């Protein structure tokens, strides 16, 4: 009986400790880990056959069927430029220029990594849809409330993050991914 | 060794094993669930064409709302599978994923054949594909480490007016056992 108790308690403790530590690590890390450029982060091992144990697990949770860096590079931002988590109760200003890619888009996702029901008819801004100034720069307002000009809708009352997709990135992205020009994320107002 | 030391050591070794096993298994389980879900709707070794992603789409995390997706769940256990996908501007890619989520192949519209099509023959590692390659020299040959995998075609949607064109490209796309 004593022996059974020994092994049963050890098995339960190992299971809880092993599975719990794995869940904690995967929950505290996202695809934004690795290289950072401003508020945006990327992991260039995404999708590759060289990806490690944790990268594969995180891809399955946060970016299943993501392409490898040779085809597409993904940057994700979960905070604004002051480091505060992005909230649907605030309005943000994205300021930038065309991303260095053959085609690009920036999409907002809810905490479950799916598109949010915002009531608007779009979920992203892209190279195709964005309105730019004569010098090629753009401003996008990220808000739960409809905005004049470029508007990326989010949902009030919940956190969100944004993914910038670089399809066929320029060589500079591979040479210096930490210097990739990505839009600044400036908080304007909060409810 | 004292009993409490033996217990602690057993727990630590067991925890490391559980931690590694759970982290290793997670992508395979999630990919298998996704393939079962998609395969259940569209079948195996044939394309299914997803509607444009909205907040109601929950099959795969972080879908792009700007892309028109065609998905083929692959089973190459009985022989190679042929994929042919015509491309469109401004961006199209054809990619193949192994059952552990690795992106083992991708080709985009820039590198499509002269007829504007990306052709791929997907086979199990070690399978004989010499005849298949000889039959179509322009096709890329991709090997999967196991029987199962997934092919995904991404086509950028520039406007709703493009729907008819994209639907026509989807209809002429092929994912089928080689020689069928």
TrEMBL record, chain A:
InterPro entries: DUF1214, DUF1214_C_sf, UCP009471. Residues 71-170 form the DUF1214 domain. This is Conserved protein. It comes from Tepidicaulis marinus. The lineage of its organism: Bacteria, Pseudomonadati, Pseudomonadota, Alphaproteobacteria, Hyphomicrobiales.
TrEMBL record, chain B:
It comes from the Bacteria. InterPro entries: DUF1254 (IPR010679), DUF1254_sf (IPR037050), UCP010244_IM (IPR014456). Residues 44-173 form the DUF1254 domain. This is Integral membrane protein. It comes from Tepidicaulis marinus. The lineage of its organism: Bacteria, Pseudomonadati, Pseudomonadota, Alphaproteobacteria, Hyphomicrobiales.
